[in-house]
Amino acid sequence: MKLLRVSLLVLSSLMISCFAFAADMKVGFIYIGPPGDHGWNYQHDVGRKSVDEAFGGKVETVFQENVPESADSERVMTQMALSGVDMIFATSFGYMDPVLNVAKKFPNVKFEHATGYKTADNVSTYSARFYEGRSVIGHVAGKMTKSNTIGYVASFPIPEVVRGINSAYLAAKAANPNVEFKIIWIFTWYDPAKEADAAKTLIQQGADVIMQHVDSSAIMTVAEEAGVYAFGQASDMSAFGPSAHLTAIINGWGPYYVKRVQQAMDGTWKGGEQTFDGIGAGMVVIGDMSDKIPDSVKKEAQAIADGIASGKLHSFTGPVNKQDGSAWLAAGETADIGTLLGMNFYVEGIEGDIPQ
Amino acid sequence: MLRFEPRKNRSKFLEISAPIIAVIMTMIFGGLLFYLMGKNPFEAIKLIFWDPVMSPTFAEYSRPQLVVKAAPLILIALGLSFGFRANIWNIGAEGQYIMGALASGSIGLALYPLQAWYIFPLMIIGGILGGLIWAMIPAILKIKFNTNEILVSLMLVYVAEQILALASVGFLRNPEGLGFPGSRDLSKYSSAANPELISGTGIHLGVISAFLGVILLTYFLSYHRTGFHIKLIGQAPRAANFAGVDLRYIIIFCLGLSGGLAGVAGMFELTGPAGLINIDFNVGYGFTAIIVAFLGRLNPVGILLAGLLMSLTYVGGELAQFMMNIPAAAIQVFQGMLLFFLLSTDLLVTYKISVKTPIRK
After folding, report:
1. Is A274 in a helix, a strand, or coil?
2. Which CATH superfamily is domain A130-250+284-341 in?
3. CB contact under 8 A, B179 and A158
């Protein structure tokens, strides 16, 4: 099996090097971790491969894994640009300032930065409305919990993560008014040992459904052993917990990557754009639903996903108060994009504080 | 049975040629590895060793990057080498590097946006003290309670990482950063910035300090009494004891020196190449420097060369990764081979292998 994989790898790389002469365009990707993480980086690499497939030999893709979010990333991108890469996808938040620095030096190279907020003439950003997916799995979690306690392993107290917690909580609360959230912050995106410890603690505190905003599959494994439920993060993780895995929020970068590369080839690509797509555009995909979920709940969850995709539903629809009881959204009002992007408060009903 | 016996007469020629032999061996075996992976071994090795320095496409950018990447490694390894000579094992330079950056960063950020000449020197002092104080914890615990400095200094790395995370999302977070982790960019705050001094060379104050450090510490090791004591403890601890060397002073000195140098390395990195305090600010210089120290045979000039060599394999390794789709793990294996061959040829210079049949009575 290993041999087969290695030889496939060798074969595909030989093919890539053959195509190299014919390629009209060269696109580079940099990853914060290894594409074998079955999470964040894996999905970006899936996106890269769909660029390979979509353009055949016309576009050559290169990538570099394990690039730290530091001065090293600036060097990697500069070397890529020097080697003749026309477009670079920098797939982690911390590459933000390095991207801008390198972009200034290479005005003819197009940069796409994931999850950041700074742009330039040749830098655009893209991110996904993961919180839309959290509305769907939040509903499932609310329906599936018997102990009415949902555990949540969170990474860093940044707006994206806070947004996810709020969205999941509102959906779970709507599905089950008695639901309670227990949240543990572990200050890392990827640390299987810490993630597993946090999940165990939550289970001891009575949680029977675990949600996560960290990248590894360790929580799924713990959930499987403890006989509780969990959700796949970034990609389908059912292989790590066949009976624990309820469904997954899958990051679908492929369509966006193909679209942007096509625009670059056509000359219609623009810098300074900020894409923030969700279920509707296929950037957030809800995975297969487990047989453990009753059919009625599956239907409700699907209806939420469809509603969000068509724009009929919004994850944040009033009336919603902030945690301190002050009014945030009036009845029927939906959250504006500015508040969502900078979200730094819990909604009413969530206990505990966001670490400062 | 194989035995290692110390060589009585070491060959000067072997001593000089050993590293060259090691590099050639790495090229042969590394090339074989790349070949087995279906990559062109000659191209890969050219990308790693030659292109960062000589290629017309990359060299102009990569050459300065070599010194930028080597500077923190050299600074930290210099400090560590003193302790290692005296059997004082500071494994926690990574933590001291973080604390130096945090201390200097706190000073710079507290004074922002004031523009004044004294801010940068204050930050240097802050960097030194940050690392030094962090290193004093294992030093004092060792003197007072005879704790193991390896464990204490290593564990304090993880504590420092937690403080770094806390600072990035909390007390040092950029108030204009929309709640995202990370401080202001100090390299864009001119009173606190450590910019490139001569355009296109990559040389910043940290690089100059590393070179100065090599000269000063070479002198110190050869002519200063403490330098002599450190060498003595390493080579003949009993003799040092009889000669009245105060071990407590040496412990404080070695940990303080390595902590201070690691701290100031963090300071220069923060204000220059890195720019801002963030959760992933540290990338392992403190650990890699341990290898650099031994690779340089604990000798300041050796450390200078070892630091540059390590940095070459990093920068060249990155080129090989994305130019030829060689996975990062294979590059790490290649780096590992280099270390292995360097250390094993070194062993063969100092010892000879003799085959002896054990005599049974």
Report:
1. strand
2. Response regulator (3.40.50.2300)
3. yes
